[in-house]
Every structure is written in C-alpha cells, then in structure tokens.
Design goal:
Length: 92
Amino acid sequence: MGLQTSSRFTAGLLAIAALLFLGVGAVSAAPTDEVAKRCLHYAYMVYPFKRPGAVRMSPDRETYFKDCISKNGEVPVPSVPTKNKDSDSKKS
C-alpha cells in the first residue's frame, strides 16, 4: 500500500511540474496604461458613437480594441471619419 501511495504522489508531482513548465510560456504580461489608452482611443476613432446613450462597447469596437491590445498597440493610426456635409447643406 505504501508503494501505491508513493507512485501516486510521484505521478502527481510530475503532472504539476509539466503544467508549470508548459504554462510558463503561455502567460503574457498585462498591457501598460499607455497602450490601453491608445487602443481605446483608436477604437473610438474607428467606431464612434452613432447616437447618444449608445452602448459603451459595440462588438466591432471591442474586437478592434482586443486586436490592438494583442499587438501591444502597434497598429496604424486610424484616420478621423469626416462628417457628412450633405446633411448640413440641406438644413439651410
């Protein structure tokens, strides 16, 4: 009975060691504040609010933000969308 307990203990230690060894590379560092702010700013530039009271994060905006974070903020600066001038000229 002592040999069986010893082999289970050894197998458990080997399993834990394997998980620790394989899991070390999978852990990534959290983004810095600067990267998170830049990615959030870019996400709102690409996908601005459509109306007051809109949901804070649309699915497209959230996807863009996560992609930017995964690239550590190394994405091209998006251009600011221009307003539709046709709607302004119809008002006058």
